[in-house]
Amino acid sequence: MWYSPSLQQLRFLEAVLEEGNFVRAADRRHTTHSTISRSLKALNNGLGIDLFDKTSRGMKPSGVGRVYGTQVRRSLEQAKLAFDLARYEADLHRRPF
After folding, report:
1. CA 18 to chain CA centroid, nearest Å
2. Partner of 25 for a Cys bridge, out of 15, 17, 67, 80, CB 3.0 to 4.6 A?
3. Distance CA 19, CA 3 (A)
4. Type and span of the H or E element at 21
């Protein structure tokens, strides 16, 4: 079964992996801890995998979560590059010659 996560879910995952904490990730993405939590729960369910393991100290990325997170970072970098290139091309066509 194919599941297509939203860019927002991927950005939330990236923030949690980089910040190491749901609260700091929520601050970084200008949202709430509960919004991040719900979004990543939906992502887990949609993918059918656990991206995080529960520990006595909270949560940490699972092995699958780390691998998936690496690919998510690359995908988000590529999406930003595509956007920047499209914007650059659009600007070129708007300039008078």
Report:
1. 10
2. 15
3. 26
4. none
Long-range (24+ apart) CB contacts under 8 A made by 43-47 are 43/5, 43/9, 43/12, 43/13, 46/3, 46/5, 47/3, 47/5
81-93 burial code (b ≥16 CB/10 A, e <16): eeeeeeeeeeeee
pLDDT in tens, 42-57: 999 999 999 999 888 8
Q: What is the pLDDT of residues 48-95, one digit of tens each?
A: 999 999 888 878 999 999 999 999 999 999 999 999 999 999 988 887
Distance separating alpha carbons of residues 9 and 13, to the nearest angstrom: 6
pTM for this prediction: 0.84
